[in-house]
């Protein structure tokens, strides 16, 4: 019996070892001539990324790219672990630009600096300025932008014609115009503004009002008069029944012709296309009709190099060759509803017929794209996503909401400083 038990344990150990290696093998290169590329594109955009990689691999490069799409939470939880272990580190990684500063401070990234001289076209003038600027930190280049994805505003063409016929004359819809439209439309059971993802709605308005996330790059500055003013504007519009209400699904309201204006990400465009309404797209709601004061909340997926104990110069050069190829061949990514960060896309006629292209069509629109790049942005995002519209829907006071937001982020910052 004892021999059988030992035999069983040996067999089980061998099976477990095989199972683990087979589960993790997909994230590693099958050969030294392969670039392992981790990214969080697991939805429909993942299909477009795979198409893009297939197109590149068909050019028969010396180093082909192996696509590894992981869920965002899983990917971000793995990164510190694998970098600190020094094993199984991918050759190329996509991260949201807001993570770069913290990753640099925690020793998770290598700089592109030693390699960029060999790729002179990977430079600022060839990319959307806001996306390029935020890939650099403390004088070193850590990120090269794939895209700049933005929350803008969808609108129902028929409802705009009926309730706000001149609101889009300048392609800027102000909160005042939304309020005026809502006072007319609510009599017919039509909502003027859908309350969607709170984080970009709040930050876009906060930015328009001149709000800053930090003054010293470390400590948050959220609990202030500007934040109160921004939240109170949405609260007042909700109380006046200009906006959607607690418990309502703004997407369903929009798709069923019950909502005029619908702020959402450009990445939702393909889904909205499946609806039966006539719609267009424009900038986020603005407090001013001055185009030079516009703020459209944005983020960026950036190519980064996770720190490796022994980085291969040849493979890293091959990695930048792929990044440079993507710069010139990003139409497939645009077809996923994204705005590529490479300005080469603006010369593509097919792209210029895509709805999201207006955001890159001129310098004024490009300057409106705003990345709220704060080292501890993740803690702020967690709070805004978790407590969202609590103050707008009267579940707590604005003062308590902001005090808790300030203290929650400050506690996380202090904890990191103590480590």
From TrEMBL:
UniProt keywords, alphabetically: Signal, Transport
GO MF term set: maltose binding
Signal peptide coordinates: 1-29
GO cellular component: a single term: ATP-binding cassette (ABC) transporter complex, substrate-binding subunit-containing
The UniProt record lists the keyword Signal: yes
InterPro entries: SBP (IPR006059)
GO terms under biological process: maltodextrin transmembrane transport; maltose transport
Family: Belongs to the bacterial solute-binding protein 1 family.
PANTHER family attached to this UniProt entry: MALTOSE-BINDING PERIPLASMIC PROTEIN, MALTOSE_MALTODEXTRIN-BINDING PERIPLASMIC PROTEIN
Protein name in the entry: Sugar ABC transporter substrate-binding protein
Organism phylogeny: Bacteria, Bacillati, Bacillota, Bacilli, Lactobacillales
Gene name, Swiss-Prot/TrEMBL: ugpB
């Amino acid at each position: 019996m004892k021999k059988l038990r030992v035999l069983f344990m040996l067999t089980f150990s061998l099976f477990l070892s095989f199972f683990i290696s087979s589960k993790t093998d997909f994230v590693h290169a099958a050969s030294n001539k392969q670039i392992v590329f981790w990214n969080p594109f697991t939805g429909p955009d993942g299909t477009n990324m795979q198409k893009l990689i297939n197109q590149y691999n068909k050019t028969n490069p010396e180093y082909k790219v192996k696509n590894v799409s992981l869920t965002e939470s899983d990917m971000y939880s793995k990164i510190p672990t694998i970098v600190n272990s020094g094993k199984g580190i991918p050759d190329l990684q996509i991260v949201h630009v807001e993570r770069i500063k913290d990753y640099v401070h925690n020793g998770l990234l290598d700089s592109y600096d030693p390699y960029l001289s060999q790729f002179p076209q990977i430079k600022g003038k060839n990319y959307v300025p806001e996306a390029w600027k935020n890939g650099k930190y403390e004088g070193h280049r850590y990120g090269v932008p794939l895209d700049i994805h933005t929350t803008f505003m969808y609108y129902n063409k028929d409802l705009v014609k009926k309730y706000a016929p001149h609101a889009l004359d300048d392609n800027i819809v102000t909160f005042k115009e939304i309020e005026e439209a809502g006072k007319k439309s609510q009599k017919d059971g039509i909502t003027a503004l859908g309350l969607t993802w709170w984080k970009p709605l709040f930050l876009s308005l906060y930015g328009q009002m001149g709000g800053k996330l930090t003054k010293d790059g470390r400590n948050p500055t959220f609990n202030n008069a500007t934040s109160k003013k921004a939240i109170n504007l949405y609260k007042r519009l909700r109380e006046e029944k200009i906006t959607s209400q607690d418990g309502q699904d703004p997407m369903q309201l929009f798709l069923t012709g019950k909502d005029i204006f619908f702020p959402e990400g450009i990445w939702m465009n393909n889904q909205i296309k499946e609806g039966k309404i006539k719609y267009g797209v424009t900038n986020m709601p603005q407090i001013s009709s001055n185009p030079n004061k516009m703020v459209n909340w944005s983020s960026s997926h950036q190519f980064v190099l996770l720190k490796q104990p022994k980085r291969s110069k040849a493979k890293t050069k091959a990695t930048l060759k792929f990044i440079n190829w993507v710069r010139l061949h990003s139409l497939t990514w645009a077809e996923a509803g994204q705005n590529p960060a490479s300005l080469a896309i603006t010369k593509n006629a097919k792209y210029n017929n895509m709805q999201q292209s207006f955001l890159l069509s001129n310098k004024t629109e490009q300057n409106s794209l705003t990345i709220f790049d704060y080292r501890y942005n993740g803690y702020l995002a967690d709070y805004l996503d978790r407590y969202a519209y609590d103050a707008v829907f009267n579940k707590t006071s604005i003062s308590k909401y902001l005090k808790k937001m300030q203290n929650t982020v400050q506690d996380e910052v202090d904890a990191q400083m103590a480590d």
